[in-house]
Inverse folding.
């Protein structure tokens, strides 16, 4: 079973409703959107994302850069970036072994993504 299938089974067992997309698995947790991206070329690369947490405009771009830098420099394993030019995403990325136990790190990954989102919003508000 590959990592995508393991993640799909894990999400279902935990009561989530993953939706298979061309890029991976989309699901909601406590009203927040998450995407698990599966890399067919690297079955040990685990990448869970919170897409589009903040809209980027020409006016707020400098503040967005500062807020992303704060997240990236202060939190472990998560990073904020703009994979599309008009939105901030936050990612949780780890390398897993060939027999990962998802319950050992997926809940913490979700919590870390939520913490990064909060830190980003706090940094934006502080200007």
């Amino acid at each position: 079973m590959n990592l995508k299938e393991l993640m799909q089974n894990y999400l279902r067992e935990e009561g989530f409703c993953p939706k298979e997309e061309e890029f991976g698995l989309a699901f909601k947790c406590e009203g927040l959107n998450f995407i698990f991206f599966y890399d067919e070329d690297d079955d040990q690369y685990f990448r869970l994302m919170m897409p589009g947490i903040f809209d980027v405009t020409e006016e707020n771009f400098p503040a967005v850069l500062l807020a992303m830098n704060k997240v990236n420099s202060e939190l472990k394993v998560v990073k904020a970036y703009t994979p599309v030019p008009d939105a901030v995403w936050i990612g949780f990325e780890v390398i897993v072994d060939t027999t990962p136990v998802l319950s050992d790190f997926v809940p913490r990954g979700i919590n870390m993504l939520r913490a990064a989102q909060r830190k980003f919003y706090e940094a934006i508000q502080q200007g």
About this structure: The domain at 3-126 is CATH 3.30.1460.10 (Yope Regulator; Chain: A,). Helices lie at 3-13, 61-74, 106-126. The mean pLDDT is 96.
